[in-house]
Amino acid sequence: xxxxxxDLNLVxxxxxxxxxxxxxxAGRRIGLSQPAMSAALARLRRHFDDDLLARAGTRYxxxxxxxxxxxxxxxxxxLLERVFASQADFDPAREEHEFTLIASDYAVAVYGAELARTxxxxxxxxxxxxxxxxxxxxxxxxxxxxxxxxxxxxxxxIRGFPTVDLYRDSWxxxxxxxxxxxxxxxxxxxxxxxxxxxxxxxxxxxxARQIGLLGIEPRVEVSVDxxxxxxxxxxxxxxxxLVQRRLAERLAGFVPVRVVEPPYDAxxxxxxxxxxxxxxxxxxxxxxxxxxARIGEAVDVxxxxxxxxxx
Length: 311
Known about the structure:
With about 300 residues, the protein is α/β, with parallel strands linked by helices. Helix content is about 40%, strand content about 20%. Helix 2 (about 25-30) packs across helix 3 (about 35-50) and helix 5 (about 105-120) packs across helix 11. About 30% of the residues are buried.
């Protein structure tokens, strides 16, 4: 497909038509008259050789191809907006800008809060928006990354995209302070027989895969989409949970649980910032990455961040 032969305005029209499923409403949304929107729909139907919108009584429904295009078109529009919002120069002390990062509650608590504090001090016009990391399988990381400025996620889950390492962490287990079944040390037998609290996701991080390689199939009693809630769901029970050391040590003083080392050499965790290649040469994003790396280095050695002149 030769992009030079396409009218990219049709992408905006296509998105409006697929989401509104009404020619008049779609036209009103993007500032086109009803005849102009009907003409755009006719062109799109010729291009795709498909009705896209099919009448069902008094309303329209999407065809199978229309349904397939719905998410793709939204992603394409988001990506185009980011392409044309790119900047050659960026002054963080003067600019007003919003960065959107996908991150788990663990990453926000351990790292994101420090990043936000530093940006608040050094770049008062910059806003950070954290979105919850998806719990479903990340089949299309490119589509996910095309809609945001970055993804905070450890190595071992996605690959093939630019990244910068932030900080290291390790895995530990938490058990209730009064759990009578666990002594000073956990055993593999303990992990096999005790009920578990797990992070609710269908994809496996290296640490979760390692448990399976040891021949242990966790007996999951509770699953939750928040790492910070896991110790609370362990407290006062016989349950066990695998969590990141930095988070466990922060929460252990507030929740009646204790931290126990794994009875095996747990794979380390290297948290990183991943981004779509479209951002690589954007001045604003370069500043974000450099700042993120600086904060990551400080978190890694657990020293306070000293704010200075913007990078």
